[in-house]
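User: Fold both of these, please.

Assistant: Here is the first one.
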Amino acid sequence: RLEMRRRCTWNIFQSIEYAGEQDQIKLYNFFDFLMHHFTPASSERSLISHIFRVNEICRDAEWERYFCYESIEVPDSYTGPRLTFPMTFCGVSKVVQAFKHKQQLHARYVLQLLRETWRLLRILTNISHVSTCHTKEITICGDLHGHLEDLLLIFYKNGLPSSEKPYVFNGDFVDRGKNSLEILLILFGFLLVYPNDVHLNRGNHEDHIVNLRYGFTKEVLGKYRVHGKKILNLLQKIFSWLPLATVIDHKVLIVHGGISATTDLNAIARVDRHKVRDDANSDGCKTQAMGSNHREASGPAEGRRRVCSLTHHSSPPAQRSDLPRRSLHNLPMGSLLSWSVEEELKRRRRLAGFDQSYGELQRSDTESGATAETDEHEWKQIVDVLWSDPMPQNGCIPNEVRGGGCYWGPDVTEEVLGRHNLQLLIRSHECKQDGYEFCHNRRVLTIFSASNYYEMGSNRGAYIRMGPDLVPHFIQYQASQACRELTLRQSVGWTERSALRALREQLFVHKSDLISAFQEFDPNNTGKISLSHWASATESVLKLGLPWRVLRPQLVSSTQYVCVISWLQKFLNNSSFPLQISDTSILETMYKNHSNLETIFRVIDTDHSGSISFEEFRQTWRLLCSHLKTEISDEAIADLAHSIDFNKDGSIDINEFMEAFRLVDLSAHCLRKLDLFYLLDF
């Protein structure tokens, strides 16, 4: 019974996590759609164009000036480590000790360390090759996700990186945890000291757009209020230069996510991994959308990355869509004046013959020609190794659960490994309860190094030691002393309560949709439906793939029928909100899509000041409504903006935005603030 409870708890956490990632990718693909199908002069495109500007070789001299740190003085009162360059083992050891004792590295040294890291990464190949010998083992770590305590525990148990103790860190260093920047600075420091013995693979979270949603952007700006914007821009550039894979003794492949049926290591080795393309201007050294007033906020002028769909497609582009690339300037003036984002998106979907995610709209225009096809193939190679997951069935299908990459089966593993004469694939990307897991006849190994990832006691972390026999040996751990002292029953109970609380929040924010789904099974308006219908309706709304009948005792007290009115009411009885506005429909949309709203908010906040105007707030909602294919009046948006502006300064602060819709939960005779947004008269 404990094992069944543990597995159900795990399914809840993982399903909610993947649903959030899917939502993020849909928003990402929506931005990409706007960039590729709207004229550069359009206001909608100009709002988001800066997030697609990344690094170009022709601007290296300009970036060198942007990395400038000499003018930043370190005061005498600073008690943290004072670094000298080239970086030494002594220097990076001082950084480790400082972070262990909650000290912060001065911004001058952060910028200097980032500059040296960027210089080194530029000369590294896409695939790092590592050799073992009888005198040393290689240590392989999976996702850390800002869990500094896990990294420090690994170093304590296994030793610091050195020429005698090489390490491979397999991506996802940042987001979710609270010490992502500290982890990066430690890893970059050891990389500078031991460039031949410390290897960093890129993960899907080493992406500035993903960071907008999952916390890293907020973390950096909170820790470095003066120089945070510059640090973020430099990290964006560094992320694009991280290697994509590591190969040990020509036999073991290490990538963050996985592979697909079309994965080709030779192609990956040739990809220009930091590659960009300025679609609006053939001159790569110029950017049409960037004015001089944005230089300080966004770094040197740059081109825009050629971004393709993050989902895996098995059909050729020509079969998917024949949509021409079109500028709105070619429309008649009358049409141009009345044109809107919603109308353009609607027309494009209609012409394509489907109403699905924007990422499925691929271009086959003649103006791009072979270059666009090559770009898409190269980008797909990168997306597949960063985002894909293994599945037990044979084949290779789109990863609809995450929304990006693919699911690949054991037949694909055999084919790809055989084609490259490899014997084992090591990947990360998925949290495992024991910190590691074999699949595909033990030819695919998942390693995850962030313990207590979902909740205290939810999982162990692990790392791998591998010698010249290429046999993986696992070391498991729990970073929390309190968690190590819990019994199995206590640990399962703790995590189960947290998972059910998260699930109840999901049910709460989808109440309106649940009512509609329940009514389909209650044509006579009795207010009751069977447990089977309750489970079907709940899954149709939440789409989490959970065993609802198994979870029923935790969510529903009835044994035969569910009284939907009282069942939903219990999620509202102990809740109250400080804010009241007239249009509850906008609130319902907001609470269900708060993560998307916050992401768009941070995108529009180009200077990372944490504040946007009422007009920018209105544009945020216009983008969200286009994405969701819904309509909310400007009057309702204005009413909401004035309600959120607590200090009445005419602008909306990100803290005001996030705090205005916190639900106060009075259950269990205590006050608990839940990070969700929902209010609907019942």
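And the second sequence with its predicted structure:
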Amino acid sequence: MTTTPEKADKKDKESGLLRKGSSSKKPLKEKVVQIYESFFKGEDPSLGNPNFWDEFFLMKARNFQLEGVLKNDPRATCGIKGQHQLTLPQMHFNLERRLPDQGGQCPTGQYTMCALIRGVYGKSLGDYGFDIINILVGFDAAEVQMQRLIESVHSILTGDNPAGLKTLSLKLLLILVTATDNVSQNTILEYIMINSVFESVVQILANPMSRQVHGHDALLLLTILVNYRKYESVNPYIVKLSILDDELALNGLGWVISSALTEFNRKYKEKKEEPQKQMTPFSLLCMKRFTSTGISSPFSQRHTETSSGPSSPTTTRAVEGTREGPLPSTPPPDSSQTTNHMVTFLQYCSIVMQDIKDEQRLCSFKLCLVILTCIAEDQYANSFLHDANMNFVVHLYRMPMRHRKIAVPNTSSRPLACAWLDLTVEFIVTHMMKDFPMELYMRCLGIVHRLLCYQKKCRVRLQYTWKDLWTALINLVKFMIAQEAHLASRHNIFYLAIKVVNLFNLFITYGDTFLPSPTSYDELYYEVIRMHTVFDNLYSMALRHATNHGEHKDSATRLTNALVNIRAIVNHFTPKIDSWSAANHLSSLTEDQVLEVVRSNYDTLTLKLQESLDQYERYAEKPKESAFFTQLVRSIISDFRKSISVATLQQETVLQEFSHIH
């Protein structure tokens, strides 16, 4: 028997449905909720009423009530299929024909779709595959219905429509793509792969006004889409992103990412960032995806740093920028100047690396290093980083340490590669601890190696204080030797030591082609000779492990071989320095006196040519990093689902906005 809305309304009143003036605080059920309850009973209120759907989408609903009844009504699972196959297509139809001439029904239909999709996915239905698709639209009609939906959303996002309606359309897409914890198990995304929203996102990013309002959501949507089954098949969004040549869109993309980082940096500087509050890693994941597809131009452009961040709020996760302790970190001075997105990112890196004991913070800084690694492998990016005519002031935060003075902030304008090296040196000297972050050290040294390989290849003589790097590396070796018993049982420290020694070998073998002056090359030898005891102890440690058949025997043997030239330098110059000292009746020599001996005895030094010092294995996400990035995407999806609520979407505002254009 068919129940009309009037009869259903009367029935609800007779069954005690509370009125507004009732003394009870129980909220009044709205008409939309009543109609859905009728659907779940197996009834179809639309029968016999040709205007039903027009009236239905004019109703204003409290969507949390609608979500609740979809999620909690025990009859919803039984009656859900078929009825939603009827309802969702009707929403598509109303979305198409009510845009743009009869506004009220368009946002109301979208609100209802948001609540419907969240409610259906909120049911304990097990596999989120074809069964969900069948429930929502019917499997046979799914391709047509999803095409119509995407086309309608595209029209809204690219047309001259109210900002609130565009926001709601993006939220609808985000609700679809974040419906499951594992994005690759969300089968409904197959239809979004076929019916692309890439062009809609690009248009939003290319428009300066649009990206200020919608940039955050657009970029989040794109980030999730490029991670859909990327290890299993060709993802069309990755392909389109890799060939994107729209400079306006690329710059807009960089602006959105940089704005999020700028806001985090600003909060840290002003000490308004609460210790427990953390920044979402999604902006970093966006940046990583773009750099790994070869897009580096958004991060190689000058701009004036006046942005206060995107107007769309970011969800909070990942790294907090504070560190417990009595000493404050060194803040950079205020400045309003020509800067670059990379400057903002480097400053962000200097904040997040200060406290990596928490797992989330550790993951965030790991992602920062992955991004820097990908950029350091890019020829175009390297040419920009090392360009002597492209100089920037980069104020890096420094971790407070009791054994060093609070540093005066750097105010000199230099190529960005100098700031990269400063960042790696800062990490090396501040993270020598018992809970040793071995992986981060390996990545950090890998970044230095890539920069040096570019400098050697292109004969770039970077004006940098290289002694800072050499001292940091030698101190790292001293730490590994001192903590051998503790570290060797947990890590292959010989592998890390090889990385350190080979950096020195690269300087020794090719330094005359990229160090800024002959004096710099002389200073390298001086540091090696001055700190020869450290290298002697390292060789003894490696030799001991190479001969005792331990688990790190092979790495220890390789380390002894890598030390051959350093030992040759020490063995060659030490007796000559001692002889010169004796001849001049001096018990100790100044640096200049040692350098004089070094310069006089280069000709008789014999070094072994070591191969592949300027070669490295290019970064590959699969298979080593697959689990890390899969979990990272899960956390981003989880954060969005926790932060979004259809109930918080301001329906009244959107309706008022929409009505103004008619």
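The first helix runs from residue 5 to 14.
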